[in-house]
Amino acid sequence: MDKKLMNKITEQIQAYINEQEKMGKTPNMESLNSFLGDVITVQNRTSIADFNGFTSEQMYQMINNPLGKECPVQLRKLSNSEIEEIPFLKQALHLLRFLSEKELKLTPQGYIPPKLVTTLYEMGLSDWNSDYYKQKLESRVEVVQVLRIALKECGFIKVRDGKMSLTTKGGKILKDYNALLNALMVFLLFDFNTGYFDLYQDMEIGNVGRLYSLWLLHRYGDIWRHKNFYAEAYFNAFPDLFPSACYEFRTFDRVFHYIGLCDINKTEEDRGFDFGSKTRKREILDKIFTFVEPQDK
Questions:
Q1: Is residue 188, in this structure, part of any structural domain at all?
Q2: d(Cα 29, Cα 41) in Å, to the nearest integer?
Q3: CA angle 189-190-191, nearest 5°?
Q4: Which of 2, 189, 239, 292 could be cross-linked to 72 through a Cys-Cys bond (beta carbons 3.0 to 4.6 Å apart)?
Q5: End position of a domain, from candidates 15, 44, 69
Q6: Are residues 94 and 40 in the same domain?
Q7: Residue-range definition of the domain harbouring residue 165
């Protein structure tokens, strides 16, 4: 609970005590707790400007219960063909199918062989940093590294004696594409530590409230906007976090773009002062998710 909200509740409690004393009553602990409960209930259901109109309860759900029944952001149930249109899912399905046929012998350094890295990379969105290297090595293609982390952490693949293979859980998930979609989206939008690949010290920035960032992209992403537009809204909602450029890269370049939810202005035509600083949503975002709009939107 932030300081402004705490001060507001304290003022309301004091006003209640003063009013009771004017009537010659001294509120006991039971009545104070009852009053406090009513205040908090109202507060949790009140639209907050810094949350773009969401309530505290809605923000709590986005942070702590991502894609759950009470969360303002939820996954749609999609057909198998629709799921295969999602770049990250297309990559995941290809690797899982490959492993369902045979084990994958990794390189002596423990990496996925370059030929398969190239195939997986080309199934996703073009990434300027990875395109810089002609040969696609896992150590240079971050989206493939993220894919491997996601499938391993979800329990779908394992590595043993220099070979990657499918787990029993991974074999079962291939029969239910929506279950795979749900597992990977929960991991990427909640569990994935996007600071794993950078040297920024604050691990909370971009990791906390990622679904709120997703809603911001849904709400404002119809046109190209500077990423700092979203950063400003994000840090307004989370004032305890010190503003940092890592939010923009972790959120858009590292998560949303890898999933296939947004474009980044990183083509040859975009070269110049604003290169890589703007983003907009891709049509697929609103096909994958449903959004409950806040009260004042």
A1: no
A2: 18
A3: 115
A4: 292
A5: 69
A6: no
A7: 80-183
Instruction: Give, in degrees to the nearest 5, the angle at Cα 75 between 70 and 81.
Output: 165
* C-alpha to C-alpha distance for 51 and 237, rounded to whole angstroms: 5
Q: Tell me the one-letter amino acid at 64.
A: N
Asked if residue 175 and residue 103 are part of one domain, the reply reads yes
Q: Which two tokens stand for residue 267?
A: 């083509």
pLDDT along the chain (297 residues), means of 10: 63 73 75 62 65 88 91 96 97 98 97 97 89 86 97 98 97 97 96 89 93 97 97 94 92 96 87 88 97 74
CA-closest candidate to residue 221, choices 183, 192, 262, 191: 262
State the DSSP code for 26. -
For the chain, where are the E strands, in sequence order?
73-75, 104-105, 157-160, 163-166, 225-226, 262-264, 278-281, 289-291
Q: Please give the structure tokens belonging to residue 283.
A: 């049509």
Domain co-membership, 239 together with 260: yes
Give the torsion sign (CA, 105, 108, 110, 113). negative
**Residue 161 Cα distances to 110, 138, 158, 207, 256, angstroms:** 10, 18, 10, 33, 33
* Cβ pair 239, 251 in contact under 8 A: no
CA–CA distances in Å: residue 138 to residues 18, 44, 170: 66, 45, 21
From the DSSP assignment, how many helices (H) and strands (E) are in the chain?
Answer: 15, 8
pTM of the complete model: 0.82
Q: What was the pLDDT predicted at 71?
A: 94
Residue 128: strand, helix, or coil: helix
Instruction: Determine the longest span between alpha carbons in the chain, in angstroms.
Output: 82
Q: How far apart are CA 231 and CA 250, in angstroms?
A: 11
Cα–Cα distance measured from residue 201 to residue 91, given in angstroms and rounded to the nearest whole number: 30
Same domain for 95 and 57, yes or no, is no
The total domain count for the chain is 3
Same domain? For 167 and 118 the reply is yes
Query: What is the token pair recorded at 112?
Result: 């996925």
